[in-house]
Write a structure and sequence with these properties.
Elements: E1 7-13, E2 29-30, E3 33-34, H1 35-45, E4 50-54, H2 70-81, E5 92-98, H3 106-119, E6 123-125, E7 132-135, H4 140-150, H5 156-162, E8 166-168, H6 170-180, H7 184-187
Parallel strand pairs: 1-4, 1-5, 6-8
Antiparallel strand pairs: 2-3, 5-7, 6-7
Helix pairs in contact: 2-4
């Protein structure tokens, strides 16, 4: 799965205001870990070389463009990567995961990366949009800044379409994950939607096994 001389960076999007949850959901605990730690571990398990966290708080990547939704976090990491002292000079790729998807699996994340690398394009799942894989080119930051600032647009899928991203069918994605992983029965649920659960309200919170 590794790509020689390329750094795969996992990005946890944890900058939301959690109004519907009534508390900071990024710090809520699932299976003994905060959602931030859970998302970070998922990205590490998906073979990311390092994990960064987009969150408007001290010690994290803060938004450079306000009120731009999930893409503001992507812009913040692209801005950080544009600084020569922030990585080793190798080409970078992003694997972007929202903090509020605690039942996402490393298998599905790895497939996004694999399919994106094969096509040499951004990659996402049709009708889902997040998480997504994004190879970083010289133009990526400028394209995103133009989309957010000049065009005042916010939709994740709109930016992915500008990049001519690969759109995967969900059914085929899950079949591949089950076929490729020898321990898939332990890691993949028979519930077609469980991996895509977003916890936005107390009623969304998953039952822990």
């Amino acid at each position: 799965m590794s790509k020689v001389n390329t750094t795969l960076i996992g990005l946890v999007l944890a900058g939301g205001q959690s109004r519907r949850m009534g508390q900071d959901k990024a710090l809520m605990r699932y299976q003994g870990r905060t959602l931030i730690d859970n998302a970070s571990l998922l990205l590490q398990s998906a073979s990311c070389d390092k994990v960064l966290i987009s969150r408007n708080a001290p010690g994290f990547l803060n938004d450079k463009i306000e009120d731009a939704g999930p893409l503001s976090g992507v812009h913040a990491v692209l801005d950080a990567l544009s600084q020569p002292d922030n990585h080793n000079g190798n080409p970078c790729e992003l694997l972007v995961l929202p903090v509020d998807m605690p039942q996402m699996t490393p298998e599905l994340l790895r497939i996004l990366v694999s399919r994106g690398r094969e096509a040499e394009k951004a990659c996402y799942v049709e009708k889902r949009f997040l998480p997504f894989y994004l190879p970083v080119t010289q133009d990526t930051k400028a394209l995103l800044a133009n989309y957010l600032v000049e065009q005042s647009k916010r939709r994740v899928v709109g930016f992915l379409e500008i990049l001519n991203a690969v759109s995967l069918k969900e059914a085929g994605l899950k079949k591949t994950a089950r076929k490729d992983e020898s321990d898939s029965k332990a890691n993949m649920s028979n519930d077609d939607d469980v991996e895509w659960l977003n916890v936005n309200t107390p009623g969304d919170w998953p039952h822990e096994k």
